[in-house]
Amino acid sequence: MSGTRLHPPRAPHASAPGEDWVDISRDAATGIETIRAHFTGHAYDPHFHDAYLVGVTEQGLQEFSCRRAIHRSTPGRVILIEPGEIHDGQARGEAGFTYLMLYLEPSWLLETCTRAADGAFPHHQAGFQAILNDEPRLAGAIRRAFWMLHEPEMRLARDGALDALAEALNPHLGASVMARAGGAATRAARRARDLLREQMEQDLGLEELARLCGADRFQLSRAFRAAYGLPPHAYLVQLRLAAARRKLAAGEAPAAVAAAVGFADQSHLGRWFRRAFGLTPAAYRAICTNVPDGKSLHR
Fold first, then answer.
1. CA pair distance 181, 183, nearest whole angstrom
2. What CATH number should be reported for the domain holding residue 222?
3. Residue 189 belongs to what H/E stretch?
4. DSSP assignment string, 85-146
5. Which of 161, 178, 195 is the last residue of a domain?
6. Mean pLDDT throughout 3-14?
7. Is the pLDDT of residue 135 over 70?
């Protein structure tokens, strides 16, 4: 499916003062999602994605934290974020900011960038060397690929734009920052992360988690935050949100998804989902599947 709209404007300055909107599409052939959005004030709480995020700020000052630093992106700047990297978002200035972003599946990025490099791409876990980039060629490749998917053109045109994107991304890829962080984590922190992934739907307490990891609960909390940027309970919420996003994209109903991934109920999932992604679970499911549920698609 490609092309469901939450808000249609294309011009960078099409928003009324104070008006926030989110416009998402999903390409069924590649699984790549495209999102274009405008926010004034607070945009997103800290969260992470399973995908590689590559995008361009169109208008305004886009401020966000990532890799333990504050980043500020202005019009024309490229934003590059790895899977698993914690980031948030907020506007600075009354006009807010507008941006466009592609969510690239890891399997797509590895396969396509390897082919674009004639099989010489060296990193099994690829990462971005820097969060912000000012290269016009890369920004142009991101914009072209975005619009080829977001307002879908013929398949050959889309494939050509994605190949050009892979070629433009290759010089900016290196060893994954997230993989290095995981490698530097203590054994207890890595074990805790693995347990949270394996038992995502369970309501583990910190004392129990620490016991299973052979660590003191206070030591574990400090080590976990140092390695992964969040305390264990917040990291677990992000794991559940990422799993919920996948299930919703596959067409599962929000209530069933909430129960499957460990949220108390559909409203609990909805509150966290809106804070992280800027729209409701039902809206996201409708976008990915063309299955409306009669509710508003807006935030």
1. 5
2. 1.10.10.60
3. helix 187-198
4. --EEEEE-STT-EEEEEEEE-HHHHHHHHHHHTTT----SSEEES-SEE--HHHHHHHHHHH
5. 178
6. 41
7. yes
Is the same domain home to 74 and 113?
A: yes
Q: Which two tokens stand for residue 203?
A: 């309501």
**Residue at 120 is within a domain:** yes
Q: What angle do helix axes 281-289 and 266-277 make, rounded to 10 degrees?
A: 80
Taking Cα atoms as reference points, which of 149, 82, 137 lies closest to residue 110?
Answer: 82
Domain assignment present for residue 152? The answer is yes
Share of the chain above pLDDT 90, in %: 57
Count CB atoms within 10 A of the CB of residue 187. 11
- Select from 27, 173, 50 the least CA-distant residue to 106: 50
Handedness of CA 11, 134, 158, 43 (dihedral sign): negative
**DSSP-derived 3-state class of residue 192:** helix
Q: According to the model, what pLDDT value does residue 291 have?
A: 54
- Tell me, yes or no, whether 117 and 151 share the same domain: yes
Please spell the DSSP secondary structure of 16-33, one letter per residue: PTT--EEEEEE-TTT--E
Note down the domain range covering 173.
21-178
More confident residue, 128 or 116: 128
Count of CB atoms situated within 10 Å of the CB of 223: 20
Instruction: Identify whether residues 109 and 203 lie together within a single domain.
Output: no
Residue 124 has a pLDDT of 55
- CA gap 178, 167 in Å, rounded: 23
How is residue 270 written in tokens? 């909805």
